[in-house]
Amino acid sequence: MVHRWLGYKFPHEGLRALEAAVWSALPSTLEHALAAFGVLSLLVVPVCWTQSTARCRMLACFIGGAAYFALTMMGWDYQQYRATHEAAQLAQMAGDVVGLLCAAYWPTLSFFTLAGQPATAAPRINGAIMGSSILTGKRAGALQKADGEWIYALFERGYESNVHPHTDSWSAVALGNYAHVMRRLFSHASSCEGGMLRSRNGSIKPENYIDGWRRELAKPSLLQGRAIDLSVGSSFYSAVPESQLDAVRLSLIRAGFESRIDELVAGTLSVSLYGDINLLLAIYGNSGPLSAWRVLKEYDCGTAQIDVPVPSASKVAMERMPQVRCHSIGRENRLIAIGSAPWRHAGWEYNAIGSFVTEVAYPIEMETPGFARKAIPAFREAVRNASPVPVGTRITVTRAPEGTDDWRIRRADELAQLLGLASNGEPAPATFSFAFGDLLNREDTDRLLYGLSAFCDSQMQWEVAAAREGAAPDPAFFAADVQLSLCPA
Fold this sequence. Notes:
about 500 residues; alpha+beta; 4 domains; 7-stranded mixed β-sheet; extended
């Protein structure tokens, strides 16, 4: 029918000429499209199999595509078109463009993100890749209390990588003063190290995550005042879930708001964001029982940006760096001693770094701003380049300290039986000791080393053998630009 309509619409000779032009150009157009796709793909494939982000792969595609466009399309096809003015030459150039666009798309797929980032991708359990929270935006709002203290409300936009379709949304993540919201941010930053919190472009370093939020806190939006209904309900999204009512009541009593409890229980409690900020902090603040997302929304941030003073970075922050000693237990786990604290099994590498972020970097950062920015990379470098635990290290296991879980006690029994310190089926001695070297060069060495992570700190004490006098230090423990004291063993 279309062919007959074209026959009436156009002269017969013109239609035949059009058909001849299209069919003559089609094979060469497909050839050019496939050639452009193949050449650019071959150029980008080596980048896909490295630890590259989607942004890096797109940059490689852009560079390769620009070179192909300049050399092939403009250097040959366009010159041919200028000489002949044939429509087939234009069709071939269109085929080149289509091929380049297709080649630029497929390296951004999640398959290559996972293949190219084994060290920083989301953790795996039994070979399965766990989901990650993907951060796509952040925003800070602030208000000033009557006493002059600034209170922040922090919002993050994102989605979960294992939930489809990927639809990002805003959520309040923290409410409180500077120290309180920074505590929450350092907790989130610890999740960045293991890949549980990432961006669309790949991994985020904890120190970069913290720095990004410090810039937001310096120029927040002014929070808009409004009334907030603290309704009690059975819904998961209720401002006060019925299951948490007792915890909320206790928080209000501790904060001195006993007089508002009856209104809350009756379902008639309505508060002001500005006038009742202390009550809201008691419930939804850093030490409250509920999270701020139940009552605060991203649109509470106004359009007006304000300047709020935040602590400036100290030039001598790294002078606060405590002494750090580190050894590797197998390939993944680390033995750590920080300051005067005893040696402890810190778990996997990313877990050791995450613990440093929350337990060491945060409190020092609050006293000496700028510490986290330099200390976290220095600690990461030390952990990644740790030397193996000396074979002469003594490990003392206490079977059942007070408060130890039953499953941990069973692990002590299993370890003693595997080392021949207890008969099969018999409990381990109350206290037993062995050398780290006793776990090595066995068929079950991997199992024994992995099993050490099951013990709590009160169960296991480590006595690391000291370095021989005159032994050469491990060069990984020293950095000229970092005030980091590491003790090689």
